[in-house]
Amino acid sequence: MNPVEKSIVRDLNLAPNGRLKMDWAREHMPVLNRLRERLSAERPLAGQKVAISLHLEAKTACLAELIRDAGADVAITGSNPLSTQDDIAAALAVSGITVFAKYNPSPEEYKDHLIKTLETKPDLIIDDGGDLVSILHSERPDLLENVKGGCEETTTGILRLRSLEKTDELRFPMVAVNDAYSKFLFDNRYGTGQSVWDGINRTTNLVVAGKTVVVVGYGWCGRGVAMRAKGLGAQVIVTEVDAIKATEAHMDGFIVMPMAEAAKFGDYFVTTTGNKGVISADHFHVMKPGAILANAGHFNVEIDVAALEQMAVSKRVVRKDIEEFLLPDGRKLYLLAEGRLVNLAAGDGHPAEIMDMTFALQALCLLYVHENHDKIGRKVIDVPYQIDEQVARYFLEANGIRIDRLTEEQEKYLASWQL
After folding, report:
1. Fold for domain 190-345?
2. Which residue ranges make up each domain of the chain?
3. Which of 68, 245, 262, 279 has the highest CB neighbour count under 10 A?
4. 330 belongs to an annotated ligand binding site
5. pTM for the full model?
């Protein structure tokens, strides 16, 4: 059975529109294009099966086709029910990649798509949030036999992997791509910072300047969201549980206070923690009328939506991706994208130039696992520095930027303890 016949997508007739989106993204992904030239000639993944669970949109499609061009048989599914774009899924299916994904599937369909992707019996996996790894280790250990290892895209997935590793239950090596230093800088900070506000602004069509934005969590993603909110003219409040990060937020010029206090002031709330219940019923009780709630973490657990629904006397959709909750005292609170990842559920995700670098890390780390899985062992490893630096150098070269190099004398000086 060929990939088109095996695939589960909403409508293959959408493929031409998906291909247009992919062509646009590819034009702005010079690092992946450089890798494609090399890997399509060398075909280092020939004979390998690769299973991918990522946000299924145009930039992801470019990564999937790169891995296919490197010789692999690729099966792909989404990593969030609201981030799959049906035209992209269709375009990939007709291009020879097996796809199990639809926009807004039922929970049962979403789970089934993940399992069907794993039933292709992959040698390597790329995961986003840890769903593939979780299913392999809990429900379908019968599919573990061929898996050499893989890569994880996001903080939430790495937390799950570290938990498996700690209890010695992890069955294969995984590279923590999210923790690459370059990814912290460009993806988590600049990518999330821009794409979150892209999603919020296109969804609400409301001004940010002069408003108060509460950013929950000041990790790399929170830094980006806060920085862009400030640039849009907002007053920014940061809430944190980590004293060092809170100190950094203060030194960066933001107001820092507990969430119980910040809840009284925010016009916009953006969660970026990866933890559950960071905005809860206690906070809803004191929020201003018209407050807008958005989540920028992987799973829809950061805002306690169940508590908000229980408090509300009515709920209605007032605009695409905006739900209005009417509270007993007459206040209205607005939830974006069902509390799911706002930049992808209500937008197109990170800019192409950002994902160009992130997905180059993914591709090179996948090759690293393929070639070194026996040496790595059953553990979570950081991205090797040479891969991190290589991607950064490719980016600089693609943009015509040159940097200095150490002289031989400088290298000797830095390597010596003597003055």
Report:
1. Rossmann fold (3.40.50)
2. 3-183+351-398, 190-345
3. 279
4. no
5. 0.89
